[in-house]
Amino acid sequence: MTRIFSGIQPTGRKHLGNYLGAIVHYVAGQDRGEGIYCVVDLHATTVHYEPAGLRESVNDTTATLLAAGLDPERCVLFRQSDVQEHTELTWLISSATSYGDLTRMHQFKDKSGKQRDLVTAGLFYYPVLMAADVLAYRANEVPVGDDQRQHVELMRDIAERFNARFGEVLVVPEGRYAAVGARIMDLQVPTDKMSTTGGTPQGTVHVLDPPEAIAKKFRSAVTDSGSQVVRGPDKPGITNLIDILAAVRGVAPEAVEAEFDGGGYGAFKQAVADEVAEYLAPVRERYAELSKDPAEVERLLRAGAEKARAIAQPVLADVREAMGVGPRR
Ligand code: AQP
User: Fold this and answer.
1) Ligand 1 binding pocket includes 150 (Cβ within 6 Å)
2) pLDDT tens digits for 77-105?
């Protein structure tokens, strides 16, 4: 059976890019294979953060995932720091990681450039921890947004180099990117991706925004010159809105173009506004219910960690054995 793994940061409120690029594919993964999903609190410590709010953010992000349709009976959902195999494997696979490759990671360059105070070694090492997250489960598939391609390539290189040096111990995973929705753009600056830290407030649609706020953001979305509802490199605003509606409906962008072409931008924006607001409303309602009981969310996370550890422990034992680390088995 296909084993699917992905991690999500507990930073801030999740946005429509996270939802369409990743979260809906986690939910679909439950029907396609064995889904293992992790809220990556250790990754969140690599940039400036408030320790007092981190546990709450983990709880909130978990409640959002449950509200979106993750079912702890049908997947493994847990908190990264509960399974110490992730950090141990990070160190062990370091010996199969190229320093030069790490220096070429775009995300490190972007984020270190924006850090106002300390640029931590943790931020530099982020992709190795991400590789360990996936490799600890011998996952075959990693559903992520387009911005994670370079990190997925790195984890594949690490797994291949590890296996070449120490024997066939790790599975080389494949990235899985949505056909539509893998790169949702900011509604105000449609040449930049929608982002938790780098986006504009009006251009970032949060999953938990009230329906009126969502509709308002779409109505004020930046569009392009012209009036045709078609995609094109000179039309980043309209292209983004077409992709969003196609992803929400689960259809090809061509179907959206065919339906709305000739109707003008105003009517199209209103339709996207209404459909996205309607699409996210049930998630917001379920989240409101779940967030009343943080103790239950915590219980689910701990139970998930037990299941995750049971999978990761034997993999770590194989890695140690192959590397000659610790006593012989
Ligand atoms: N704009 C996006 N379009 C499609 N997918 C996206 N993802 C992120 N942005 C987009 C995907 O969402 C998943 C979870 O991302 P994360 O854990 O990195 O969460 P985050 O840090 O809060 O999200 P951002 O917006 O990516 O934060 P910034 O920009 O501040 O670093 C991943 O699979 C990601 O690819």
Assistant:
1) no
2) 999 999 999 999 999 999 999 999 999 99
Q: Is 198 in the pocket of ligand 1 (CB under 6 A)?
A: yes
One-letter identity of residue 291: S
Q: What is the pLDDT of residues 151-178, one digit of tens each?
A: 999 999 999 999 999 999 999 999 999 9
Strand (E) or helix (H) holding 263: none
For ligand 1, atom 23: residue with the closest CA = 196
Rounded distance from Cα 322 to ligand 1 centre (Å) = 35
Q: What is the DSSP string of 70-120?
A: --TTTEEEEEGGG-THHHHHHHHHHTTS-HHHHHT-HHHHHHHHH-SS---
Alpha carbon of 197 to ligand 1 centroid (Å): 10
CA-based end-to-end distance of the chain: 28
- Domains in the chain with CATH codes: 3-176+293-323 (3.40.50.620), 211-288 (1.10.240.10)
